Amino acid sequence: MLNNEKHIDLIFRFLADEISEPEKNELEDWKSSSSDNFQLFEDYLKVWNHAENKIPEEVENINIEEEWLKIKPITEKQNSAKVVEIHKKKSNTWKFVASIAAILVLSIGLFSIFHKSQETIIAGNTVLEATLPDNSIVSLNSESEIKYSKNFEENRVVELNGDAYFKVEHDSENPFIVKTENYYVEVVGTEFYVNTKGDFEVIVNKGVVKVYKPKNPADSIILRANDKVLETGQKIITKTNNLNQNFIAWKTGKIVFENADLEEIVKVLERTYNVEIEISNPDYNKIPLTVSFDNQSIESILKVVEATIEVKITKQGDKIIIY
Fold first, then answer.
1. C-alpha 61: how far from chain center
2. What digits encode the pLDDT tens for the residues 116-149?
3. Topology of 118-241 in CATH?
4. Minimum mean pLDDT range among 121-135, 253-267, 286-300
5. I need a labelling partner for 196 at 20 to 30 A (CA). Which of 22, 207, 247, 308 fits?
6. Topology of domain 249-322, per CATH?
């Protein structure tokens, strides 16, 4: 890996909008060279965006040198961590970036500077299955990721961005918690699905799951096998029976449509195969189809759809068009 200190300096320049074009290209190359580099950049960017580009009074008054002297004894205990010295700059923008970095280290457990204390698993354009340190198994859909601490076996907490299916190893003394932006999903040992893409959704396959907001764990929703909760755009969460057979088709490869509208079929295929499909004629949306597939390619499935309901399907760039 390239020298992180140099590239964190480039991140500061990027955030302060004081980066040259060659430096920007170098930063982009560094980001794309590994998932750790990409995540480190994203962590700094999130803190910058959260601060809304203004210096709070408590940040303005920070003595950067003094705060870093406080941090050094901690960093010396981090074998895999590298101390990143923040360079003093004359401009207020640079002072802000440096101050934010100091606060990041001081207030939230070195999560960005000492990113090695946290593991990140990222699924790119494909489904990824991983075994966690406690032997629980997680299946990540494409464009999804989880994070967890290196002492995971003592503190079974994962942060999810995207959608994933969990098969959790039983441990009655140590609950397994999935953290999302607005909800926690807590279990002891079970199998369940969590989706944070769009509307928040939890579907239980086996066992019992508890869903609650972190500030109000007493007001929880209990889910059992075949139960489902869904939060809509209006932030209303409802509990129902799960009638969607295809909620983990991206994991199992098995797809079942029973008198399903073409519009619904397209949604399932898009999620399962990470493709974009457009129905050019709205009159086709409600055409029904009953068919099942078992680990077939998207090309094979589209040929069946094309022959069965007598439509034409073509590909234009990265988009599939039904017309």
1. 35
2. 578 889 888 889 999 999 999 999 999 899 999 9
3. Jelly Rolls (2.60.120)
4. 121-135
5. 207
6. Phage tail protein beta-alpha-beta fold (3.55.50)
CA distances from 109 to 67, 97, 102 (A): 14, 18, 11
How far is residue 102's CA from residue 3's CA, in Å, rounded to a whole number?
Answer: 20
**Quick one: pLDDT at residue 79?**
38
AA identity, residue 218 = A
User: 23 vs 319, which has greater pLDDT?
Assistant: 319
* Domain layout of the chain by residue ranges: 4-113, 118-241, 249-322
Which range (13-22, 141-150, 285-294) has the least confidence? Answer: 13-22
